[in-house]
Amino acid sequence: xxxxxxxxxxxxxxxxxxxxxxxxxxxxxxxxxxxxxxxxxxxxxxxxxxxxxxxxxxxxxxxxxxxxxxxxxxxxxxxxxxxxxxxxxxxxxxxxxxxxxxxxxxxxxxxxxxxxxxxxxxxxxxxxxxxxxxxxxxxxxxxxxxxxxxxxxxxxxxxxxxxxxxxxxxxxxxxxxxxxxxxxxxxxxxxxxxxxxxxxxxxxxxxxxxxxxxxxxxxxxxxxxxxxxxxxxxxxxxxxxxxxxxxxxxxxxxxxxxxxxxxxxxxxxxxxxxxxxxxxxxxxxxxxx
Length: 289
Hints:
- The protein has a domain of 197 residues: Vaccinia Virus protein VP39 (Rossmann fold).
- The chain has 8 helices and 11 strands.
- Helix 1 runs parallel beside helix 4 and helix 6 packs across helix 8.
- InterPro entries: Methyltransf_12, SAM-dependent_MTases_sf.
- Keywords: Methyltransferase, Transferase.
């Protein structure tokens, strides 16, 4: 389901935000064929487990037999890892092109994954009232959501009592520094964008995505919303979630800066001679009732 004017997911938003959401969906449809053929994703070659930081598996715990929902799953790279761990995995994304590719990749890997095409805000309806043990999301997902309070309510409704959300997301500090290098920008650690929310969507028009590969043939404009760590925690707490843990880490799944070195985990970090600061975080929040 695309977030257009008839979507129940978008009806809560103004005309301007509905247009931004619609353009984001078209942008991700355009990205999908580039991403599925990119070296960055390494489809068919890269181990799905490699998309996870070591602390994620510790926080997620035993997954065999558990019902896991991956929101904003894109190509389903992490979703496949859940299925390989023995979970009953479901993935949801607003890009119809991405969902079709995710289904194809799951079939090729002989994995039974239930993929749904829907906007996050329409997930409860799209999943027909299903409840899950774990809702997982992140790694570049929250910036495409204009309303975190509505997102938190949606996640609450998708979880069974006793279940938990696990959010692994790029730290707002990394977003402020710039998660990818812009044209003619130096590699210095300089603040380039807001850390805090409140100034509306940032419009980006780029012919290339964060992966290798050819330029987009169209639909290059997309919109991102800034969300500070305080906004994320507050949205969850006000919805009734209990915050179990918050892990900040210097690890990234790719080398954002040339000085970064590969760690024993396979992920990347700045060398010990550089200042340590968080570039990702993992947040576990439980639905107590």
